[in-house]
Automatic annotation (TrEMBL):
Organism of derivation: Mangrovimicrobium sediminis
Positions of modified residues (FMN phosphoryl threonine): T174
Its job: Part of a membrane-bound complex that couples electron transfer with translocation of ions across the membrane.
Record protein name field: Ion-translocating oxidoreductase complex subunit D
Location in or out of the cell: Cell inner membrane
EC id: 7.-.-.-
């Protein structure tokens, strides 16, 4: 009798892989709606086109590998990768930028290593970093949020994606970039002079982060993942920001609330760091993993060359996840501790 060969992750009943992926997709809805409200339809167009490409690349890769496309497409993992990358990309990205990112995520970061369960790196973050390193101008061209400039409509968003040469997009630096480049103004003066800033963080960004926080808390309530990695990441970011805030001088790195509600902080904490395949799996390992991601995010944001560093921090820690698990395994029941975490 021939047995079906199915790779990890394994789950049954209400927590099957497809059910988990569908709940993750549902949890992104509040954040996507807020991004659409403040930045226009660009994020929705990104997601729709990325999803179409992701399913196509997934089916092609499965066919080339001799796997049944219908069975593996049903786990919705390709759609999750597409949605996460579509959210991370700047609104009104050209179609070729989305295509390159999805190809890198699905073909290189996922199927090159054997598919879902074998990939050592988060596919969406691999796609994002490939684009950021290769096309830095396009990847840092964010549209101004509602209240700081005009927000294009749906037709303009479609034109920007599929006929980018016919659409003159107005872009501006993100709040993280503005604060990073500041070397003369006090934080309160910079806040007053720059239209990018809102009440606590960037205009629009703060509400998007709160929306992704709400989606993440819902996933916690549904027990899709545990609290350890996201809470550790956010706690370390807040601690580092508090240590280096210095009251708001021109050399300040920004307040804890600013860092928690800026960029991809909440999105990364609840939708990227919690990836069960590429993160640490032991309880103490998740705490260490999340804390180190938070530390790297802050260090790269403030002292590195990239204002928002979630993707780089996650990929660096994907390297370290097996090492962290090796030294944070729980003690076997009935055996004395050896002092090395086992």
């Amino acid at each position: 009798m021939a047995l079906m060969r199915v790779t990890s992750p394994h789950a049954h009943g209400p927590l099957s892989t497809s059910a988990v992926m569908q709940q993750v997709l549902l949890a992104t809805v509040p954040g996507v709606l807020v991004l659409t409200a403040f930045f226009g339809f660009g994020t929705l167009v990104n997601i729709a086109f990325a999803a179409l490409l992701a399913v196509s690349f997934e089916a092609l890769a499965l066919k080339l590998r001799g796997r049944p496309p219908g069975f593996y497409l049903g786990d919705c993992s390709a759609l999750v990768t597409a949605v996460l990358l579509g959210i991370a990309l700047p609104p009104y990205s050209p179609w070729w930028l989305i295509a390159v990112g999805i190809a890198a995520a699905i073909l290189m970061a996922k199927h090159l290593y054997g598919g879902l369960g074998y990939n050592p790196f988060n596919p969406a973050m691999v796609g994002y970093v490939v684009l950021l390193i290769s096309f830095p101008v396009q990847m840092t061209s964010w549209a101004p949020p509602r209240g700081a400039g005009e927000v294009p409509g749906l037709l303009e968003a479609l034109r920007a994606c599929f006929t980018p040469g016919s659409f003159d997009a107005i872009t501006m630096a993100t709040p993280l970039d503005v604060l990073k480049q500041n070397d003369a103004l006090l934080v309160r003066d910079l806040w007053a002079q720059s239209p990018q800033f809102g009440r606590w963080a960037g205009l629009g960004w703060e509400w998007a982060n709160l929306a992704f926080l709400a989606g993440g808390l819902w996933l916690l309530y549904r027990r899709i993942f545990t609290w350890h990695a996201p809470v550790a990441m956010l706690a370390v970011i807040a601690l580092m920001a508090a240590l280096f805030y210095d009251g708001g001088s021109s050399a300040s790195g920004g307040s804890p609330l600013f860092h928690l509600l800026s960029g991809a902080t909440m999105f990364g904490a609840f939708f990227i760091v919690t990836d069960p395949v590429t993160s640490a799996v032991s309880v103490r390992g998740r705490l260490v993993y999340g804390a180190l991601v938070g530390l790297l995010v802050y260090l790269i944001r403030v002292f590195g060359n990239y204002p928002d560093a979630v993707a780089f921090a996650v990929l660096i820690m994907n390297f370290a996840a097996p090492f962290i698990d090796q030294y944070t395994q729980p003690r076997t029941y009935g055996h004395a501790g050896t002092g090395d975490g086992k």
